[in-house]
């Protein structure tokens, strides 16, 4: 979760494409927003990060990111960043004397909705149990024995069970499990063999990465390493280090030196790997190589490692890194920059640090003037994504100060590298040009560029919607753009586009039923076996990888049927999201209606669709979720807010019940949401912003940007002006959730979108 105003680098060269995510299973980053900002403790609720369950090279812990990375295939687990906020989440003041507990009423909706729990008990609905004998025709005894052995770390015993398997599918299932749970012990040859004999396996990329880790950990002979990479280049820094050393050992010095220099300049390395390169390639590494490495590490805020690299580049680079560290830590002064060595006065890294320094001093005009002189050449910039983040921070400050033209120029002059950063930069430039410079013709090319490179439904719908707004403002034809946005009907901007087109329906795209007798991919059948054998922990990572890679709709349908039968709302929604991003929208799976237990709400509580919308975004329906900041359970309430809410409704508060009793958690969350709705005069935008960032902060934003309830304030622009990226995204996601859940829980399609229509005043 990133804070845009003065946040310490929440996304850097080796920390790409992260927004409020949770690491699931094997570490596959699922696009699920968890937790809220805990204003009381003044920290962002952090990502819930699960470390890889395999030993890694010394002093190196990675999280596997399936997204595209320019400089590395792994990224460092991010630490939570502090907010610059004061104040606490506002809650109802406790009464002087605890009132009698109010009798909870039945959850009622206006008009009433079909209960999610009526669906859950319907025989045609998921039962929560996968029948091991459901047409699989497999003896599960040997499979379970092998799975149990692998789970307990006994590779030999598991392999023995696999060797006796008569069914090839059982053997494949056990082999995948061995490689999934014990990749280093299994070794690189075994992983490589599995890849070769299972083309198209959805976890191939994951297996390749772990084959390289295993190759490195096994200290494989040089010839073996070279043979391994004969057909394809390494995909991890670890693999590249291993190959460079192997090439050197085999006398291919020129090729080894070239690869080593690339790794040194571009890759994240642990100290052991650094040592290997310095020991074996020290003479080949130039001062320029080390200066670039130092700069890249400084953008990543890894200043100890940056200083190690700088020491090989000379005293001027050491001084430069020290200045950048001072600016990042907020201890720089004007003299700090005045004393910079002449040789680095024009270095892009020094300019970057000075802009940070000026931002902290709130000298936005001076920072803007300096930013307009900053280099844009990738070789000089080193990390275009880090630069974009500073450009965004500064542009928003200038926009707040009324200098929209400079804000536009700063956004338009970006040198972002990653797709998501480019999309964000082009959106900002187009949005500012359209809404604050009133220049739709200037805005249109930026939205076109964003639309051209957008791949996910959220980004695609946003770019198409705003391109339509630009066309409309220019008195042109906007319909085609709104139609394109409206196709992504489960997204905030897709729903706004439907309203723009005069539509009031909320289509639910259902997963197709798998055709009877249709042949299923091997990986789908393996997943079925794992579920049937009670090995859900092994199955789920493969489910997610399959959702991201399977192209055939009939295979997605078959896999969706397996997922839905298990009735795990968290797995269902994650699978549904990933499948949607892969071109298979399945709203009934992505918006499960069995994630919140049946409960009787207290008086004036929020409606069931609102509760579902919040729970989906806060915890992904994980009743035991606990953030680092202490937000707990389905609704991710912090203890102080939950306690004051319990006091208001007249029930005893027990912290343990927040994760042990999802009914209790849902009741308090619904009651707190009801309080916020009353406080915000039924504004959903303000209520959801307050639930995420706190009521005091919302008051600050109203003071700065106006009240979205007022006719003079555009509510969509107001959302986009929210200065915290996580909250900006959160409000949009919960609003889109609400439309979908009103439809999913039985609301007539024509009425499901009404709250969004009202909020957007359309």
Could you characterize what this model shows?
This protein is mainly alpha-helical and 762 residues long. Among the domains are: 1-32 and 46-79, no CATH class; 116-122 and 594-760, Lysozyme (Orthogonal Bundle), CATH 1.10.530; 405-504, Alpha Horseshoe (Serine Threonine Protein Phosphatase 5, Tetratricopeptide repeat), CATH 1.25.40; 522-590, no CATH class. The protein is 56% helix and 2% strand. The chain has a two-stranded antiparallel ribbon with strand order 1-2. Strands 3-4 form a two-stranded antiparallel sheet. A two-stranded antiparallel sheet has the order 5-6. Strand 1 (22-24) and strand 2 form a beta hairpin. Helix 6 runs antiparallel to helix 7 (204-217), helix 17 (364-371) packs across helix 19 (384-400) and helix 26 (522-532) runs parallel beside helix 28 (553-566). The two termini are 31 Å apart.
